[in-house]
Amino acid sequence: MKDASVLLHRRQNTGYNDGKWDIAGSGHVDEGETAKAAAVRECSEELGITVKPEDLSFAHLSHRLEKDRTYYDIYFLVNAYTGIPAIMEPEKSSDLQWFAVENLPDDIIGCRREDLLNYLRDVPYSEKVIM
User: Fold this and answer.
1) For labelling, which of 5, 38, 101, 131 has a CA lying 20 to 30 Å from the CA of 76?
2) Residue 48 has what pLDDT?
3) Of 1, 93, 83, 82, which Cα lies nearest the Cα of 46?
4) pLDDT at residue 86 above 70?
């Protein structure tokens, strides 16, 4: 089993799974932005840490079909960063904690749990249909 920890934040006031744990430093890719650039930006905006693109390594890709849209959830390992992670958007996040990937909280968003478990199983790609 991989020895990995994940930084999770508890969502609030977002309209999406509020009250549940989600992966900290995650978000959407902006127009003209690569996935790694988005991860770097989100880590800075949400956590106040500096991550270099070369310090990210691919972990998992999940293709998720929902009733009104399609998502590609791309997960990276952050192998190095500078700064101390903190809640930089307190209106969207009420808590921030490290968890062992093999010991996730019960109230983590379901698709995040599934994707992290796929990472532990060395499954690089998964698909799910949520209708």
Assistant:
1) 131
2) 98
3) 93
4) yes
Q: Cα–Cα–Cα angle for 71, 73, 76, nearest 5°?
A: 165
Contacts of 21 (CB under 8 A, 6+ apart): 8, 9, 10, 11, 99, 104, 105, 107, 108, 109, 112
Q: Which residue has the tokens 């599934």?
A: 114
Nearest Cα neighbor of 62 from 1, 7, 116 is 116
Share of the chain above pLDDT 70, in %: 98
Amino acid making up residue 46: E
d(Cα 26, Cα 22) in Å, to the nearest integer? 8
Task: Look at residue 103 and tell me whether its pLDDT is greater than 70.
Answer: yes
Token pair of 9 as six digits: 């934040």
Residue 78: φ, ψ to 5°: -100, 105
Q: For residues 20 and 108, give the distance between their C-alpha atoms in angstroms, rounded to a whole number.
A: 5
Residue 39: which region, alpha, beta or left (left: phi > 0; alpha: psi -120 to 50)? alpha
Residue 1: is its pLDDT beyond 80? no
The H-or-E segment that residue 117 falls in is helix 110-120
> pTM for the complete prediction?
0.92
